[in-house]
Structure formats: structure tokens, C-alpha cells
Amino acid sequence: MIKKIQTINDFGVYKDFNWGKISNFKKKNILYGWNYSGKTTLSRLFECLRDKKVHPHFENSQFKIIVEENTEINQNNIDTSNEKILIYNSDYILENLRWDLDNKINGITFDVGEKILVREKIQKNKLTISKINGNENESGRKEIYLNALHNFYPFEEYKFSNEAKKIKNDIFNSLIDFDKRHYKKIKNEVISNLNEHILDNEKLIYCKKVSIASNNKDKIGLIDYDINLNSIIISVNNVLAHELDPENIIEIFSTSVQSWLKEGILLHENENNCLFCGNNLSNIRKKTLNDYLSSEVSKLRDRTSSLILEIEDEIQKINEIKLPKSKNDFFESYQRDYNLQLENLNQYIPKIIDYFKLLIDKLKEKESNKIFKSITVHSLESEIINEFKISILAINNIINDNNDLIDNFIDIQNDSRLLVKKHYVADYLIEEDYLIKEKKKDFAMRCLERYEKLVKKLEENNYDLESELKSITLGRKEFNDFINKFLNRDDIKIEVSEDEKFILKRGNVIAQNFSEGEKTAISFSYFLVTLQSLFKKNELFEYIIFIDDPISSLDINHITQVYSIINSFFFRKGIDENNSEKIVECFKQLFISTHNSDFFAFLKDSNRINKKKKIDGYQQPTSEYYLIQKVSKSASEIKPLPKSLKNHKSEYLYLFELIFGFHSSLDKENDERLILLPNAIRRFLEIYTLMKLPSSTDEVDNRLKILFPEYSELKTLHHFSHFTNLDKVTKHDSLIMNLPQAIDELINILEKDEIHFNSLKSGFNLN
């Protein structure tokens, strides 16, 4: 329970309030105060306890509220509040009653309480779904991701199939089976590193040719020739560079004679005479001839002849090199390379043969007439020999590759085909930015999946909420009962529209508008329906109830009904199992505030509210009464209820006491009643004129004219009769200054009704 409000600072009209010696709150508490005195503001302080946070309109406020066991709740520890509080005030009406003009039914539909929140949730969910899915007027959040899918889906729909056809027909001449399934298999093999599978142009050409080749070739023999040119050149140069001493040399012997001489010596080895001419062959002559043959000249000439034969043999070998008969002996993939190497070879063979012939010529020249002289010959360019060897080696490599293809044709062809397939698949995926589009597609799929889950969740939530709307609507019987009790009419009833909205009917006619009284009846009825649901669960006894002015815009008949409902709702019989006649208070603590004197009188006279309880052997009151009153233009306070209000049933007497007391005051300028008088004058005149003219429907100004024709001269009082609240009056300082004159005018009016005036004074012993 709440014991008291120790202090309030800067909380609306409560600028600097201190509880002081005011009696603590009891279980039942009645607060009386005129309009704009601070009743609703006080209820918002209770909202802070309910919501466990400072009210957003008063974020800089400070307060101390003492609850059970003298625990202090303030703006800093408000979140520790454990009080369960339900509040009915103007905020509750705004939050729990919504109505709309529905063209479908040509009338007003409305929601109350939870239905507002439920319908707001439904609408919020529908709006979110619309923003995700889009509608006919605008695209949704899914569109950008759907576009990513649309950019990617053509691969699966037709692009892979088209590319597979191109590879099959254009690359492999329809020699292989290759469709979308095969394409996707290759795609999965190359996707991790596309560039790795791109072939250079030469490799691609080779593999494509192998891929479409037929295995109808015979093996080709290798070129079996290893040129001996370098060693020959060295030997020739040695011979040509050799110089002989001509002494003791028979110069007549030429190269041809030397050959004849060798044969002749063999024939005359055992002869003493020449077999040709018959002349004597002395042993000395024989020795001379044999010495010649064994001389340097003879050896040099023999070496020269031998080199010539060797070179001629090399020339013959070159001319007899066994090359493939035709490029057509090779697979097509090797024909071009073979032709290139053959052209190179044919370019260098003549140059080598010509050089060999040059060497032969030089040797012969040496042998015939320059046996004793050195001869030089230019060197053959090393590039010629190297290129010759390279060409021979290259051709042999081509032959080996070609023969290897013959031996392993199926495996090599399959490998080549696989490389070609991977090349073209990878090349297409790179060209199409496939990886980027796939990444966007994957991200879009994840986003769309999340959106689909969210939409599904929202739709399921809306299904539950719509079911909840129906369950809330099922309580319309209790709702109708309360409204009928409030308005004391049975022709007012609530029905439900197709979309689970409430419809107010007057008789059989759908309401086109709500009166303020009907709005009050509907909102407060729903408040009681909410409390009734807590009562059924036996939880209402745990709650502090604050009801702020439940009779707004209701006439005296309806005010009686409100009091009756409150009296019967919160104070019930038949609950105590041991005593069915016992009246049980169905709340933890009750606060009721009002500006209406009639309603206040009902509450003040209620036996159930004023019931006492025996404590420590004495009967103690369980209720307390307070006055909420303006103390300045912008500040209000909570005060003990004045005796004049507490002891008298009539607000009318209380107002007269204020007015006459001020009239009698000697220090009007500093009189504390000054701030109350504008409202007091207006309210007093309303009651007085209605009492005199109970059937009148005129405004107070016209009623005064009827009662007092001379009223038109009472200008000051005329102004005050038109002000409906203090705030308007306090903006006119000149009128505040004229309050004494207005009071004098009012007393002059009352004095003319002598009997009534004296009776009023007697009520306070003022005679």
C-alpha cells in the first residue's frame, strides 16, 4: 500500500509540495478538487509507480513516495517499485478507446483496451509484410534480392544448356555427348579456381586437334643421325694449318704419284731392276723411296685424303637422312610443328653441305700444291650447327609425341577433351561474372529466406492476434451490461463487426457519433471489464486502484449510476465462505478523485467507503478524504479536507463560505482564498441559478438576467460568470484585481433574496 507522498517537486502543478502533518493514506481515499487543480497530474504520479519509470512529461521531476514498511520510492529507484496499480484517467481513455467512421456500415466502429494494441500489432505486422513483399504502389524490400535471383537463374534455365551445345557441336564436332548435366559437373570441378583452367592458345589448339582426331596413323621412325661436324672441322683445321720442311723431300711426288709410289714399292720389294723400265734399283734408291713414304709429307697427305673421304661420307649421311615421308604421317595436332621444324632443317642442311664441300676443296688444295704451307678456312657459324641439331631433336620429339599418342590414344584424347571442356567452361564463367552473380544469389537467398521466415512469423502472429481479437470480443456481454448500468438505458448495446470491431447501437440504429457521456461510459466500462477479469482470477485483491473523475460529462442521473456501480463492484457480498452477507473490499487500496460535488457527496456518505475497522480495541476509520487545491496561479497542493466540506453535504454551502469569508476579510489582497474565488463564483452562480430556475436550459448569464433584470449593470460579475477555469482568469490580471467588486455584486444579489441569504449564513453561524 501507499502510505503518503512525502514530497513532489516540479511534477506539473506540484512545484514544491511537502506532505507535512496530513493524515496518511488509508485503504480507501477520496480526493476532491475543482477542474485543473491537479487531480489528473496526481494520477500520473501513480503511473510512475505502475510503469516503474518517471512519466515522460515530467522527466526532471523529483518525488518521494512512502509505501509499506516505510520504504521510500523516488525518481532514482522507481524501477524497484513492486506495487500493482491500475489507473483510470484521461490517459487511459486516450490509450484504450479508439473510434473511426466506417463507411461500410455507415456508422462508428471502435476498439477498446487490448483490442487497440492487438489491432495496432496486426496493422504493424501487415505494414511490415507489405514493406517486405511490396504492393501495387511500391516495390518491397525483397525486390533487390529477387533481381539478384533473376540475374542468376538464366544459367540454370538455359545458359548452361546453350553453352553445352556449343561445346559439343562447335568444339568437338558432335563427337561427344555433352549436355547441361555434363556442363554443371565440369563447372563444379573448375569453380574453385577458374583462371587455373584457362589454356594458352598453343595448348588449346593442340588439345582441340587431339580431341577430334582419329587413331588411324602408323608409328614413325626416329631420325638416326648425330652430326660429327665439330670434330671434322678441328681435324681439317689442324691439317690445313700444318707446315713441312721441304729438305730431303722429293718434290716430284704429288698426291697421285704418292699413291702410285706406294704400290710400286710393294711390287719391287724383292726386285733389283725396275719392272717398267728395266733400270737397276739399288738398295739405296729403295731406301730413299721408303723414307719418303714414311716422312711427314706422306703422312700429311694420307691424313688429308682420309679427311676428304670422311667429309664425303658425312655429306652422304646428311643427304640420306631418313625423314617422315609426309606431314600427313602425323596426327593433325603435330603437322604444323613438324612442318616448321622441317623448314628449319631444310634451311640449314645446304649450308652445312656447302661448308663440307669447302673443307674438301681446301684439303685438296693443301694436298696438291700447298703441302708445305698453312691454309686457313673461315669457321661455320655456330648457330647453323646448333639449329640443325635442334631441328633434328625437335622432329624426334614430335615423332615421339605422335607415337605416344598412337600408343595411348584413348587416354590422351580423353585428357585433352577434359582440358578443352574445362577451358571453355571456365572461360564462360569468367566472361559472365558467374562467381559475383552466384555470390549475390547466395546472399539474396539467405536474405529472402530470412524475410520468408519473418513474413511467416508475422502471419502466424496475426492469426493468433486475430484469434485474440475474437476472444476479447467475446466479453461484449459484460461490456454491454456495464454500459447499460452506467447510462441507465437498455437500448444502448454493443455488437461486433465482421472485422472484430465494436459497433455502438442506439436501439437498432448504428451510432453516427459518440457523446462525451457515452465515451466516458464506454471507457470506464472497459476498465471495469478488465478489473472483472482480474477478480475472476482472484488477483484483483493485489491491486491498488486509482480512479480519476469517472463522471466526466455525465448528468446527475448518470452520476448516481456511476456511484452505484463503484459501490457494488468494489464492495461485494457472497465472497467470504464463512459469511455470505459480509461485504468484502475487492482491492488492495482504492483512490477516487473527482471535481463533481454531487459525486463527492455520494462517496462521502457511502457506508461501505466509511466503514470502520476495529484496531487495538478501537474502531478506526479505513478511509480518508483530501482536497486538491490551487495555491497559486501555477501550483497546487494536497490538503486535508476542510471541515466545511467534510461536515456539510452541500458544495453550495462550501462555496458560499469561501465567498462570504473573503467578502468579510479585512486584508483581501493577501487572503489565501483569493486564488479560489474565480472558480468559486462561477460554480456558485451555476448552482444558485439552476436552483432558482431548475427547468432552464439557458447559460448562467441568461439565467441571471431572468432573475435580476438589473444584472446587465453588473459588468464585473458578468465576466466571471463566463470563465470556466482558473487558468483563463489568471491571464487577466485586471479581472483578478476586480474580484472584491465582483464579490460585492454577488452579495448584493443574494441580499435581495433575504430568506435564502440568512439561511446560508446560518449554515456557518455567520449571522
From TrEMBL:
Q: Say if the entry is tagged with keyword Coiled coil.
A: yes
> Which Pfam families has this protein been placed in?
AAA_13
Which segments does the entry list as coiled coil? 441-468
- Protein CR006 P-loop domain location: 11-734
Does this UniProt record's set of keywords contain Coiled coil?
yes
Keywords of the record: Coiled coil
Q: What PANTHER family does this protein map onto?
A: DNA REPLICATION AND REPAIR PROTEIN RECF
Q: What is the designated name of this protein?
A: AAA family ATPase
Q: Which organism is it from?
A: Flavobacterium litorale
